[in-house]
């Protein structure tokens, strides 16, 4: 139509018509409230009926391209550009804490109306008025299949030594409160910002937050939806203020509804709403924490010891009018250890922190008759990052936990964005699985290819890792990286087995002659074993002179000698030449190569020792097995089943490390041959017999270490050498 066309919009109209013609024709009924949205991957276009009868087509060009720019709602300047990095152990710790917490919270709600001592203790803790009490009891009757819906525990990063931020700042997480009134508070921002990095483990969960919540809620999306929110300033909920009808209710406003409406909400199971009123009244109430921090109560509630995992993460909490007098006196005089909070509300309103007020103000707040239902909670000092306190959020929905969302930062003790704080994203290294998708066996060659590729796919590949050298004696030297905390846990598991099987004890004095330097770890590994077993170590190292070693033996009188058979043989040669040789050792720990019968007999004569404990592993797997006194002088090794799973495929020893989450090792061909030795299936430890190793050359019934040969060749001025073995029958 010429009356609506002009030279300047003719081209744009053709563009829109071309897009429309390329799709299947659909003729909707257009009215003044209808708009069809088309997306050409660059701009959004809208087609609608306009009230002006002379125009029926309008092209709408938005100022921003798709996808939606979250920073049009959130101030981009508040987002720090860097990450805060955490370990996989911390990620898994929060998942486990949620599992325990979810079970406890569900049981508290279910037990609320029960005529038992537990039910009475729960009711006495909350001390609700009769109307709230009846609402909860009626809901337990008419809606017995309780679903918590959305609840968000807030995490303080308090001083402690449980985990580390950026591998540097030690902290211990504490759940200081649970937000349960507003289902989406904090979720949408986390979903938008934390879901875009394929190398970040948090992105796995964050990318599914909204979809999961919508599907799980089972809302009929064709029906009208309401948002219950307006009194307090927030962030996420205002994303919808232009689009959805809003009704404003707080807890007390729900109680102002007529009995008829409340009964309808309670009894009619066809009505779907989140959050459940029990979640709003019980989980959001801070008096709940006096139950969560009450160990005898949790023991009775669970009827087992499963309450222990949450004891570390819940601060000690008391309802003010239920504090015993002796404890109240202690709280009055030690205000620096406590804070006072209203039992309801949010955003840090009316919180009194003892260290920030005078003794008179503290006593006044604590003894105020209007504060009897408030709580006193243990106060923990924050760990700071860039001079700001940190507070995270655990995003939970029913039985699911999306782990930690965005982290809020503020210079104030009360941390929130709406009061001028900032936010920063968490990062956990994605779990890289070093194995094939079809469960085929992983070879060293393929593993080393993946190690090289890791440098190009993960920019954090060399951060917070324990490096060990792989290869060098028979092939190309490469470096294998494991998570530092996982590496320590592996050593601790092995030491626990050594203590259980009397392989090591806190009475041992161990002389360490293993090699160190140039990223070889043997020396350090055995020092760690001794420290974890609480026994003395004398860390001399392979490069120490025999004279100095002999002096240390005379002075400290060790009962355990540790080192490679090659280095121990050098020491034995030296000691044999000494006029006075009265060295008596109880045990010899060896690794890196085998200890044949000739060496054993020689050591028995020089060291007066008959127990030889071999250790088994590699740079890729770590040390995961060792011999016990029972299997001394054999090729049978003991290994913890919680640490590794061992399979034998065509006589090859195939190892899966069960505790590594970063740089996992699954179905790895160790290169050695062996067999599993049958043992009680219920035993914590398995047995494996190692026939031969690719690191050894078999000569009849004995073997020759490649490293022994190489060490000898280093002492001879030759550039190339070849070993020829002629078997003579």
UniProtKB/TrEMBL annotation:
InterPro entries reported for this sequence: ANL_N_sf, TauD-like_sf
Entry keyword annotation includes Transmembrane helix: no
Name the UniProt record assigns to this protein: Uncharacterized protein
Organism: Adineta steineri
Lineage: Eukaryota, Metazoa, Spiralia, Gnathifera, Rotifera
SUPFAM superfamilies on file: Acetyl-CoA synthetase-like, Clavaminate synthase-like, Glutathione synthetase ATP-binding domain-like
Keywords, ordered alphabetically: Oxidoreductase
Top-level taxon in the UniProt lineage: Eukaryota
Molecular function terms, GO-annotated: oxidoreductase activity
